[in-house]
Design goal:
The protein is mainly α. It folds into 2 domains: 1-40; 49-164, Cytochrome Bc1 Complex, Chain D, domain 2 (Orthogonal Bundle). Helix content is 60%, strand content 0%. It has 7 helices and no strands. The protein has helices at residues 2-40, 49-62, 64-67, 102-111, 113-117, 134-146, 150-164. Helix 2 crosses helix 6 (134-146) and helix 4 (102-111) crosses helix 6 (134-146). The longest helix has 39 residues, at 2-40. The protein starts with a helix and ends with a helix. The chain binds heme C (HEC). Heme C binds at residues 62-63, 65-67, 86-89, 95-97, 100, 105, 108-109, 113, 123-126, 128, 140.
């Protein structure tokens, strides 16, 4: 009787350790590839010719009207418009697009600025989640990055690395 009770306690003890370990282990295995994909989903690829070409046509059709055919932004882009909103900034190296990580640029383009800052913020930047696919968003941002001088691209890579290590 006492032996049975002891082995019952032992089994319970083992189960209490094994089951959570088992679940954790498989949880990690199942979760890991998803997490990797989620990261890969917004990594820009300015060195891939096909992606950049696709991005260029997406840019011309969707972004150039505000951000400029040559990515130069709207005139006097640092000054508020009469309605109090900001004009579209340039996407070339004279703007501040390159100050932001791949992830931030992707999220802004897909969901719009308000969604990303998490509060009401009247602005003229459309959200593209119902207009462009993720692939097209990556492509257009990759095209934008491909136009930056090497030095700026390098700094932008470092901004991404810093964000990854946080
Ligand atoms: C209707 C005009 C308009 C169009 C079209 C437009 N944008 Fe914008 N975009 C803006 C404005 C205006 C801002 C600045 C908003 C603010 O700061 O108040 C902005 C800001 C941004 C920013 C943030 C830049 C930064 O440095 O913070 C990104 C990234 C961006 N746009 C990407 C795009 C992309 C990519 C496209 C095309 C797929 C696009 N935009 C099309 C008006 C536009």
């Amino acid at each position: 009787m006492s032996l049975n009770f002891k082995s019952f306690i032992k089994i319970r003890f083992l189960l209490a350790i094994f089951i959570p370990t088992f679940l954790l282990f498989f949880g990690i295995i199942i979760y890991m590839p998803k997490d990797k994909n989620a990261q890969a989903a917004y990594i820009l690829n300015p060195d891939n010719h096909d992606i950049v070409e696709l991005g260029k046509s997406v840019y011309v059709q969707n972004c150039a009207s505000c951000h400029g055919v040559k990515l130069e932004g709207q005139k006097d882009w640092m000054l508020r418009l009469p309605d109090g909103l900001m004009p579209a900034p340039p996407h070339d190296e004279t703007g501040h697009t390159w100050h932001h990580s791949d992830k931030y640029l992707f999220m802004i383009t897909k969901y719009g600025i308000e969604d990303i800052v998490g509060q009401k913020y009247a602005n003229n930047m459309p959200a593209y989640k119902n207009i462009l696919s993720d692939k097209e968003i990556i492509a257009v941002l990759s095209y934008i990055k491909s136009t930056w001088p090497n030095e700026v691209k390098k700094i932008h890579d470092q901004i991404n690395d810093r964000e990854k290590s946080m």
